[in-house]
Amino acid sequence: MSAPSSRALRRHEVGGLPLIHALAQRLGLRTLLERFVRPHGNDQVPVVDSLMLLIYNLTRGKEPLYELPAWVASIDARAIGERSLAVEKFNDDRFGRALDRLYRADRASLMTELVISVIQLFELDLSRIHNDSTTVKAYGRYGEKTKSGVELARGHEPKTIAPI
User: What range defines the domain where residue 37 resides?
Assistant: First the structure.
């Protein structure tokens, strides 16, 4: 009888991760996040690493926050340009703190730069895009006026519009 081998086969998820990673690289997403999301200083894992994993996960299908550590353990790190991942360091608390830091960042500027990057990278023609920001929508029960002073009537145009 031979001694048991210390080698074992492990199954890793790859799926669309190489494609998602390649697109994130072309967009400079990591660099953009690094500019807007500040590190804490004593992070064991850079906050941007957690955010990138969240982006990969959201792009390929959404796992609940509490299942992300198992998902991170299941992926092949090479599919996202890493040699390995410190799997034990990625937990729901770490992802939650990363989202808190993203929330505190200047998300409007981050999103604007990301959209401009996408437009330029893919040479999108925006000549037929129209943003109609004049629409007023109200749902549910409401009184005579909204908080902004718009007087609403069912099935009719607003009677008065107060300056915002």
Answer: 17-121
Taking alpha carbons only, the member of 118, 154, 128, 109 closest to residue 24 is 118
41, with CB counted inside 10 A (0-12, 13-18, 19+), is: exposed
pLDDT at 133: 72
Say if CB 49 and CB 57 are below 8 A apart: no
Domain assignment present for residue 81? The answer is yes
CA separation, residue 146 to residues 23, 90, 94, 135, 156 (Å): 43, 44, 40, 14, 15
> What residue type is 51 in one-letter code?
L
Instruction: Kindly report, residue by residue over 7-19, the tens digit of the pLDDT.
Output: 877 777 888 899 9
Q: Would residue 7 count as lying in a domain?
A: no
Q: Which residue has the higher pLDDT, 69 or 137?
A: 69
User: In which residue are the tokens 């990673």 written?
Assistant: 21
Phi, psi angles (nearest 5°) of residue 100: -60, -45
Kindly state whether residue 9 falls inside one of the protein's structural domains. Answer: no
The domain total for the chain is 2
Joined together, the tokens standing for residue 17 give 């991760």
Query: What is the residue type of 20?
Result: I
Quick: pLDDT tens for 73-121. 889 888 998 888 888 888 888 999 999 999 999 999 999 999 999 999 9
